[in-house]
Amino acid sequence: MRKPLVMGNWKLNGTKESVTALVNALKAPADKAAAKVDVAVCAPAVFIGMVEDLASGSKLQWGSEDCDVHTKGAFTGENSPTMLREFGCTYAIVGHSERREYHKESNECVAAKYKAAQENVLIPVLCVGESEAEFDAGRTMDIVRAELKAVIDLCGIESFKNAVIAYEPIWAIGTGKTATPEIAEKVHADIRAYLASFDADVAAGVRILYGGSCNAKTAPDLFKQPDIDGGLVGGASLKAPDFTAIIEAAEANA
Ligand SMILES: O=C[C@H](O)COP(=O)(O)O
């Protein structure tokens, strides 16, 4: 039985004031949901220490939006998995489409980050997904399989025992164009089938989140799908009432 996970990805948003208010407002819903649903927020690195101070003692978990492959050294601007772990992160998102696009991160680079996160006791949240042109051309699974295969080649299928996958169709991110529950479920099931071709038990156990305009309105039907194990939520995770409604939708289907 897979425990759903609802994770916020704040991206490049927040102030000291808004982070304080948001984390304080999410502790009670996270505590209430904890028996059935894991709840986490992934914050810009500069806010992670604040999130740790505010959320410690509650069931709200936190993580980073990226992590470097190195643990220390002359890598200006980076954040190492050991530093993130020291500030209490449970998760590290790797391979978000915005990193792949704006920072030119290849499948191999993302796989290396996934490996570094896992080696340093962070749970990687591996983002996969296709562009609109690739979706229109029917190439979704070609893209997603290649993104998964790079990780399998470097870390092995067993590594997915301690990882999360987030399927995020790029055309649905921040656009208001959510994938229909049927489209999303088909891709999630195809991802699970692909992983099962390597190891059926690992495939059955891995949590696969949906991301892309997941909000209070769309989450209930998405979360009813058998292969959708929660959401990676961008815009709607910045407002406590909206994110709370998404947590409640996951609880209702857990
Ligand atoms: O990581 C989150 C995704 O990019 C989804 O963002 P969004 O919910 O604003 O569409």
From TrEMBL:
GO terms for cellular component: cytosol. Substrate binds at N9, W10, K11, G174, S213, G234, G235. Keywords: Cytoplasm, Gluconeogenesis, Glycolysis, Isomerase. GO terms for molecular function: triose-phosphate isomerase activity. GO terms for biological process: gluconeogenesis; glyceraldehyde-3-phosphate biosynthetic process; glycerol catabolic process; glycolytic process. The active site is at H96, E168. Its EC number is 5.3.1.1. This is Triosephosphate isomerase. It comes from Succinatimonas hippei (strain DSM 22608 / JCM 16073 / KCTC 15190 / YIT 12066).
